[in-house]
Inverse folding.
């Protein structure tokens, strides 16, 4: 049975160049893309909710939201039920940009899977996806 410490180091080292390559295709930061994805999947949110979801500071969210709003990817409106709260919503342009960002990395990955892996390798990779999803669960998900 593999030692978890050794496996963690080997696994991290294997993921690092893949992650870099996927991110190389994108034009928005991971946190900005994450905020757009969260808004797309779960609807309007406050800046505090986005900070918690992305596990970044409120200040970082404020800066990112300003840029996303300036680019027309999100809009902010006062919550009609609680006028002290501001809701952030994804715009149509933001939804389009999110799709473009996702497609950029996916196109590279699809090509790499097709060109670099044979059928047995692709089957092995498919079998490990549920394990990777299990690793990515947060304590709140479990």
């Amino acid at each position: 049975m593999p030692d978890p410490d050794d496996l963690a180091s080997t696994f991290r080292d294997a993921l690092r160049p893949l992650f870099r390559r996927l991110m190389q295709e994108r034009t928005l930061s991971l946190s900005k893309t994450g905020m757009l994805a969260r808004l797309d999947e779960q609807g309007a949110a406050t800046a505090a909710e986005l900070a918690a979801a992305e596990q970044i500071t409120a200040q970082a969210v404020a800066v990112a939201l300003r840029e996303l709003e300036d680019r027309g990817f999100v809009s902010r409106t006062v919550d009609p039920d609680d006028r002290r709260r501001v809701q952030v919503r994804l715009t149509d342009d933001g939804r389009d940009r999110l799709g473009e960002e996702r497609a950029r990395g996916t196109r590279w990955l699809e090509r790499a899977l097709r060109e670099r892996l044979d059928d047995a390798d692709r089957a092995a990779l498919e079998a490990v996806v549920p394990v990777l999803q299990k690793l990515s669960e947060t304590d709140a998900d479990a």
Q: What stands out?
A: Helices lie at 4-24, 30-42, 47-54, 58-70, 92-116, 119-136. Strands lie at 74-78, 86-90. The chain has a mean pLDDT of 91. The chain has one domain: 4-136.
